[in-house]
Amino acid sequence: MKTQKVLILGGSGFVGRHVCERLNQLAVKMTVMTRRGSAKSVKHLPFVDVIQGNPHDPLVLKEAIRGHTAVINLIAILHGSENEFEKAHERLPTSIANTCAELGVKRLIHISALGADQSAPSMYLRTKARGEQTLHSIAKTKGLNLTLLRPSVIFGVDDQFINLFAKLQKVFPFVPLAGAKAKFQPVWVVDVAHAIAHCLVDPHTAQQTFELGGPRVFTLRELVQFAGIWSHHPRPVFGLPPFTSYLQALLMEHLPGPTVMSRDNLLSMRVDNVLSNKLPGLQALGVKEAQSIFGVFGVNESEIPLVN
Predict the structure, then answer these.
(1) Which segments of the chain have a pLDDT < 70?
(2) Beta strand pairing status for 154-155 and 187-188?
(3) Is 269 a member of any domain?
(4) Cross-strand partners of 201
(5) Quick check: 73 and 93 in contact, CB under 8 A?
(6) Domain-embedded: residue 278
(7) What's this model's pTM, rounded to 2 decimal places?
(8) Range of the domain at 251
């Protein structure tokens, strides 16, 4: 691999930790910029340097990018106001791309989302799409080698998706579920990390968009059932009708603690979060066989009576 020094934005999060671990295996020098303290999840890796700063501050971002050969942007939010979505998914990627061009950093890898579309029903998907459009424009006019990755929901044994539903079923006797029929094609976080690392190695991935999904499509109800069986606390799952789903999401937005479900999440789930098969995927990025959720969590698929 050509000697590289990579800035990873969002590198201390769930996906970022795995990306850092994969690049560390490849002896790639990394800088992880975080707004949270010491980033203990990645600081122990020998090829990682951690810096603290706010990437939304243009001067701080510029100093962080300076001296690197590539930037990986993993920053995204799932909940928030329209302004917060625009800040994370549009204004920040625009600032990153423009700063890369100014400093002569040609390589940019950006994580978007399956279903990103400017006419999508949710703020999340619309702002993701507008961010992609802006990045394409900057890359074309300023000569950036841009790669866009669109993953479905990303899972792993240390995720906040399957584990969340597992924890809920340890506490509650049943699960009233909004968006129960929504479809997902979950992709393993390690496969995503390998795909991102491949993008750094293979210059032919520049100026391309890839869709990342696992080998099987699930409904949200099935994923919640899986989480319950995996955690040995299976509970009945009841799909809610549209209006009740809306009320549940509205209530969850205002509960204390991290938001589990929002009205915008509900709108996002109107669009199936599955591969379109119109764009290259994991195989084109060196992942010959995507891992299934059953294999990763050590569950025998034949023993799981999943029903729609």
Answers:
(1) 1-2, 37-38, 303-308
(2) parallel
(3) yes
(4) none
(5) yes
(6) no
(7) 0.95
(8) 162-183+216-273+291-303
